[in-house]
Amino acid sequence: MPVDILMPALSPTMTEGNLARWLKQEGDEVKAGQVIAEIETDKATMEVEAVDEGKLGKILIAAGTQGIKVNTPIAVLLEDGESAADIKGGSAAKPQAAAAKPEAPKAQMQAAPQQVATPSRNGSDGGRVFASPLARRVAEQSGVDLKSIAGTGPNGRIVRADVEGAAKTGGQRAAGPASAPAASPGPTSSIDARDLADKLGMPYEAIPNNGVRKVIARRLLEAKQTIPHFYLTVDCVIDELLALRKKLNSVEGVKVSVNDLIIRGVALALRQVPAANASWMDEAIIKYKNCDVSVAVATDNGLITPIIKNADTKTVAQISTEMKDLAVRARDNKLRPEEFQGGGFTISNLGMFGVKEFSAIINPPQSCILAVGAGEQRPVVRDGQIVVANVMTCTLSVDHRSVDGSVGAEFLAAFKKLIEQAYSLVV
């Protein structure tokens, strides 16, 4: 009999996901283990494999649908000898698919009860209609009379969303009283940005925000608004580190990067200063016993932080091999949830882009993130003499609730010593 393909739970905390795209079409043969779709969670885009073989008889939820609850049927798989006629109508997935459509804008939802009596304003009395150029063009294309619309923009101005809402409902889009447009978007909303760009004749491309981008934005905003950051900066002389790397890479089969050595240095420093390996909770400070180091990797969907677990127990060569594999799979959206969820400390390295120094935003619930700049030749003083050395600036961003200034300074001192006495990283 036909088998339902369900929206999978790709992590223990996942309750819903977005169906990014189908890699198989209706009628395609499917083998067990084949990737049939891509699911977008709040963390990453992940592949979904078929657990049975057969033919994809019917796709119940279209690509691009958002907010699909876990265990909701998303497609039907036909077994050998079955056809589309064997699929019973009225699938339980249909209501879910309908519910997953994008929500109406808040302004439209809140204003709906007021459609019976819309105030006479914005051109309804024969005066001038205040509307953005983009709203006028959309109205012309959709055949909507601007005089019948009450705008929700500043001072009752009609914006694109008002016209689109009226076009969908087949009539006037309601709004609150002219004196109190409570649901009007703020000056930095995407609607105002589009209207302004159109008004000024600025060419632009609107790139939809996927689930990963939205989560990154939400977490970064949360971090800057709720975490009391403070910053500590040190300069590390890395001549010995570069010499060690060159010597290690002369060994056949070993190719390590400066970042691999930094990961090892951070892990050993956390072992020496475990108080920096912590998270803040209202009822307790959590101090981690393992030195799991997250490393920021740039992908097309934004930053993701795969984890080198127990990095203090691994050799530089092991860290290098593992990091290369994690970085490739991160960019291909093939990481498993446990490979990027967790970690007690994060490294963000922009040195390869020539960035000398920067401050990174803490990755909650962690308490520390180390921003690593480029190594470059600078004048330094040794024994009263100015000499040229390779120097790398590192800035530690710290959550003051869980890690005191003295602890952050102690960690940086330990890290600096390990980096400058680089052979301690391999003994």
Structural features, described:
There is one protein chain. The chain is an alpha+beta fold. Helices cover 27% and strands 24% of the residues. The protein contains 10 helices and 18 strands. It has helices at residues 93-99, 106-111, 133-142, 160-169, 190-199, 211-226, 239-249, 258-272, 316-331, 405-420; strands spanning 3-6, 16-22, 29-30, 35-40, 45-49, 54-59, 68-69, 73-78, 229-237, 278-281, 284-287, 293-295, 297-299, 302-304, 307-308, 345-349, 368-382, 385-399. A 6-stranded mixed beta sheet has the order 9-18-17-16-12-15. It has a 4-stranded antiparallel beta sheet with strand order 1-8-6-3, with no helix packed on it. A hairpin with a 2-residue loop joins strand 17 and strand 18 (385-399). Helix 3 packs parallel to helix 4, helix 8 crosses helix 9 (316-331) and helix 8 packs across helix 10. The model is unreliable at 90-121 and 172-190 (pLDDT under 50).
